[in-house]
Amino acid sequence: QVQLVESGGGLVQPGGSLRLSCAASGFTFSSSTMSWYRQAPGKERELVAAITSTGGSPNYADSMKGRFTISRDNAKNTVYLQMNSLKPEDTAVYYCNATTSVMVGILRYEYEYWGQGTQVTVSS
User: Fold this and answer.
1) 18: β partners
2) Which of 60-64, 85-89, 107-111 has the highest mean predicted lDDT (pLDDT)?
3) Confidence at residue 88, expressed as pLDDT on a 0 to 100 scale
4) Residues 97, 7, 90, 69, CA torsion sign
5) Do the beta carbons of residue 96 and residue 34 sit within 8 Å?
6) 53, 31 contact by CB (below 8 A)
7) Regarding beta strands 10-12 and 118-122, do their DSSP bridges make them parallel or antiparallel, or are they unpaired?
8) Which residue, 116, 111, 81, is CA-closest to 98?
9) Residue 47: strand pairing partners
10) For 2-59, what is each residue's pLDDT tens digit?
11) pLDDT-based confidence at 77, cuts 50/70/90?
12) Helix (H), strand (E), coil (C) string for 37-54
């Protein structure tokens, strides 16, 4: 059974920091691309950051560059999102996402999994 379990969300003051974690199980984490998305009330879900299976070349949405850092520990099947200099507009539910592919003969099957989300609220 595939599980992505986020943790670390909460209430933080503007300028503060939070570290989100996503513990994965039920699939081959070490060969999966892991991402963080977020969705604010009344808005569409947006990509926050993504990291490849080897941890190289993380990608960030422009508004998060320099403030957020995505990382992963393949030994612990966990991906992290360090969020610094938080702003009220960062308030959202943050979701962990995994994309992976499996080869069966010559056929390639791609899978995508989502966590249940963790609330981040930035407010004074």
Assistant:
1) 83
2) 85-89
3) 96
4) negative
5) yes
6) yes
7) parallel
8) 111
9) 37
10) 999 999 999 999 999 999 999 999 999 999 999 999 999 999 999 999 999 988 789 9
11) very high
12) EEECCCCCCEEEEEECCC
Please name every residue paired with 74 in a beta bridge, in sequence order, or none if there are none: none
Mean predicted lDDT score pLDDT of the chain: 95
79 class by beta-carbon count within 10 Å (0-12 exposed, 13-18 middle, 19+ buried): buried
Q: What are residue 75's phi and psi, to 5 degrees? A: -70, -25
CA angle 23, 28, 32 (to 5 degrees): 80
Is the pLDDT at 102 greater than 90, yes or no?
A: no
For β-strands 10-12 and 18-25, DSSP reports them as unpaired
How far apart (Å, rounded) are the C-alpha atoms in residues 8 and 122? 13
Compute the distance between CA of residue 68 and CA of residue 4 in angstroms, rounded to an integer: 20
Q: What phi and psi values does residue 18 have, to the nearest 5 degrees? A: -145, 150
Structure tokens at 1: 């059974």
The tokens for 93 are 């539910």
